[in-house]
Write a structure and sequence with these properties.
Length: 94
Amino acid sequence: MNVLVTGGAGYIGSHAVHELLKAGHKVVAYDNLSKGHRQAVPVGAGFIAGDIRQEAILKKALIEHGIQTVMHFAADSLVGESMQDPGKYYHNNV
C-alpha cells in the first residue's frame, strides 16, 4: 500500500513510517519540519517538505505517489497554546 504520513519527521510519525516500511508498504513522509527533523525519517521512505495547509503541494504528493491512505500525525499538541490560539489548532489539526 502507498501511505502518506503527515508529520512523518516527528517522533510518533517517524516511528509509524519505520513500522510501515517494515511491513512492506511504500511510504512518503510529509512534514514542514517545524517540530520534526529530516534525519528522523527512516531510510527507504520518501520525503516531501510541505505544510498540510499547502493544498497544491499536498495534492501533487497524493497524485505523484499514488497514495492510497494517509496517516495524520502533523497535529499541534500543546494544551496551553491551544487555549491561547484555538484557530491555529483548528486549521492545522482538523
